[in-house]
Amino acid sequence: MHTVGSFGFGPTAFRSRWASVFVLAAGLCVVGCDTPREGPPNVLIVSLDTFRADRVGTLGNADGLTPNLDRFAAESVVFTHAYSQSTVTGPSHTSMLTSRYPTEFTGSTRAPALSKEMYTLPEVLGKYGYQTAARVAGGDLNPALGPTRGFSSYESSVDFGSLWHTLPMATTWLDSIDSAKPFFLLLHGYDTHTTYLKPTPYGLLHTGVDGFTRAQEDEINATERVMDGLHHRNLDLLTAVTVSELYPRSAQGKAKLAEMASEGPMPFPKVSPEDQEIIRKVYDGAVSYADAMFGVMLARLEKRGLLDDTLIVLMGDHGEALGEYGLFHRCCSLEDDVTHVPLMVRLPGGEYGGERVDGVVELVDIYPTILEQVGAMPPVHMRGQSFGAALRGEPFTGRRAAMTQGGLGSRLLSARSLKGRLTYTGIPLTSPDLASVVEAMRIDGPAFEHTAGLPEDEAVALRTELVRWLRTLAPPPGESAAAAIPDALLQTLRAKGYWDAQ
Predict the structure, then answer these.
(1) How many domains does the chain have?
(2) N or C: which end of the chain has fewer CB within 10 A?
(3) DSSP labels for 248-296?
(4) In which domain, by residue range, is 293 found?
(5) Does 381 share its domain with 418?
(6) Which pTM does this prediction carry?
(7) Whether 419 contacts 485, CB under 8 Å
């Protein structure tokens, strides 16, 4: 199995310990070549969009996909059970930046509707003298949709771009700011988002083939329309089933799709098991590409002498289904493939590097943790719980369970503990009666789905946690609270498989 850096460039190309085929001309110096700045640390959050935790070597993958992330993990505190609060990019990032759950800020469109008391992380850090910026890759984080409040500079690249697009924007900003003041930077890329196929050599890196047939190219470029071994081409899958409030992974939803697939003069093409495996390997190539971009970012921080006074948080915003339940999308499940995400925190200087924390944490916990690390007072609205104890080498048990709400327009809700997951499907998540309905449903009835082997007493306990948690949430904002989406961006979202875009 190839790893990044095995394409004949030779060891002299890697003057930094962050090995990447792109680092050749970086002109690197050793860590700490500049005198560390005094005062609170810089803060950098790197978000790898649609990145499954099970693709990271340090989290158990044996295929050598992530050499840079694995080196980073050796200098970081690694959280092995971190879960996202949404399977959609915009709500996931807004949850992280507000320490609130999606229904508390999701209005009638995809754009977040933040009330005045929802102070964002950059807003708070700005009050403590931080220079704040975001360099994001469009799509759901386009300025028309993204959580821009509190950033003194918020710039977006091409929609659904890569770290390849956002990293130069970030380093330009870093070179322009006052080095005597701390900075907060959010850096984001859609490197493992659909379409998975990345530039040579990454697109073919793990596939074992020299090229693709036309049919395979069509499948790879439209994975969100591949279901149960069929390529549904231009059929709007979610619209086809949600008109009757069915989900594609349900038996009724799949029967409806099979019926539609058999209609018309031309049946939908079959996607063989071998081709489905190629799709998964193409995704793995995107993982290695994202890893290489991450290596470039670390090398540029190293060149600027910033590693020893910067707190770096590496996160995934959600994962991706890769054929589980017949799906290649994150729309219709809250299982680990779409909610378990990588989360690593590198303290300045790499303190406590290599520590592994097995307690359950959520992405909403990042906000209070960062404030604790920099000595800032937290606002009262936060739902997150600091995992700062784990960063100090102290005992840390984590949450009883992580809570995740489905994508926009969804009726999915789940609680994930170390023992397993309980998922509820029923009335809309915005219903004021949701907690009472969840509490009243039979735990062994059709409204609940249990992880295989989940003990009944744990399922009951997770349902109790869900009900308790639901009753702490603020009601969703009003219908007019969020801005409308520009037509051009709406079309881009739909072309990328976001059928629920409104």
Answers:
(1) 2
(2) N
(3) TTSHHHHHHHHHHHT-SSSPPPB--HHHHHHHHHHHHHHHHHHHHHHHH
(4) 40-197+276-399
(5) no
(6) 0.88
(7) no
Say yes or no: 346 and 408 in one domain: no
Q: Are residues 312 and 450 in the same domain?
A: no
Q: State pLDDT tens for residues 129-146.
A: 999 999 999 999 999 888
Query: What are the tens digits of pLDDT across the range 66-89?
Result: 999 999 999 999 999 999 999 999
Q: Give me the long-range contacts of 449-457 (CB less than 8 A, separation at least 24).
A: 449/422, 449/423, 449/424, 449/425, 450/420, 450/421, 450/422, 450/423, 451/420, 451/421, 451/422, 452/420, 453/420, 454/419, 454/420, 454/421, 454/422, 455/419
- Residues 351, 425 share a domain: no
- For residue 442 the two structure tokens come to 């039979």
Question: Mean pLDDT for each 10-residue chunk of the chain (502 residues)?
Answer: 28 39 32 61 98 98 98 98 95 96 76 86 97 96 90 94 97 97 98 94 95 92 87 72 64 77 76 95 98 97 94 98 87 91 96 96 98 94 95 96 80 95 90 94 93 94 97 77 61 58 38
Residue 233's region, left for phi above 0, alpha for psi from -120 to 50, else beta, is: left
Residue 14 lies in a domain: no
Residue 33 has, within 13 A of its CA and on its CB side, a CA count of 13
pLDDT tens by residue, 175-213: 999 999 999 999 999 999 999 999 999 999 999 999 999
Look at residue 36 in the predicted model and tell me its pLDDT: 60
How far is the C-alpha of 99 from the C-alpha of 382, rounded, in Å?
Answer: 5
> Do both 311 and 424 map to the same domain?
no
Beta bridge partners, 476, equal none
Please check whether residue 113 is in contact with residue 481, taking contact to mean a CB–CB distance below 8 angstroms: yes
Q: In what order do the strands lie in the sheet with 412-417?
A: 402-405, 412-417, 420-425, 448-450
Contact 87, 193 (CB under 8 A): no
Q: Which residues pair with 125 in a beta bridge?
A: none
Paired strand residues for 313 = 45, 345
Structure tokens at 216: 């395979």
Whole-number Å distance between alpha carbons of 12 and 6? 13
Q: Is residue 314, in this structure, part of any structural domain at all?
A: yes
Phi, psi at 52, each rounded to 5°: -75, 135
In this structure, which amino acid lies at residue 314?
Answer: L
In one letter, which amino acid is 375? G
DSSP string, 154-177: EEE-STT--HHHHHHHHHHHHHHS
Q: How many CA atoms are closer than 13 Å to the CA of 32, on its beta-carbon side?
A: 4
Helix (H, G, I), strand (E, B) or coil at 300: helix
CA–CA distance, 152 with 321 (Å, rounded to integer): 35
Domain boundary among 399, 418, 450: 399
- Contact between residue 317 and residue 89 where contact means Cβ atoms under 8 Å apart: yes
SS3 at position 119: coil
Do 375 and 444 sit in the same domain of this protein? Answer: no
